[in-house]
Design brief:
By secondary structure, this protein is an alpha+beta fold. Among the domains are: 31 residues, no CATH class; 75 residues, OB fold (Dihydrolipoamide Acetyltransferase, E2P) (Beta Barrel), CATH 2.40.50.100. The chain is built from 2 helices and 10 strands. Strand 6 and strand 7 form a beta hairpin. Pathway: Lipid metabolism; fatty acid biosynthesis.
Length: 160
Amino acid sequence: MDVEQLMKLIDKVSESDLTGFKYEENGIKLQLNKKENLVMGTTAPMQAVTPEAVKVTGASSKAATDLEEGVQKQTGTSEAAPVGNVVKAPLVGTFYAAPAEDAEPFIQVGDSVKKGQSVAIIEAMKLMNEIESDFDGTVTEILVKNGQAVEYGQPLFRIA
């Protein structure tokens, strides 16, 4: 087999669906293997929608207002946004309200807290991490239950 025939053979194997090819002639062995064609997916970067980019027309604005009013009429209330600062989980783990099972909780609703005061523990990878308040104020709401799994950034307490 000359070089031209060999090159043609390589081209034919490359263009085919074969993943391998063996050829033997007069004690000369030729083996061609090719890797499977891997298709790598790519995604185009997403563009953020800014409030300026969204234009509300008079008709759709009226429809949105009517919808909001209809929902408020059905529920009978218009919910106000909760007041106060939120202490959020700084890591993923298990939330504990007390330093031990038989101990009193660090804080309860109505307690006054100071910035830097320990308010809970989050266990992560068998390590106990004390969570400190970022705010001075009064605890108005405890948003998670003892022993509950929490995510990074999940609200734990509301302090007013």
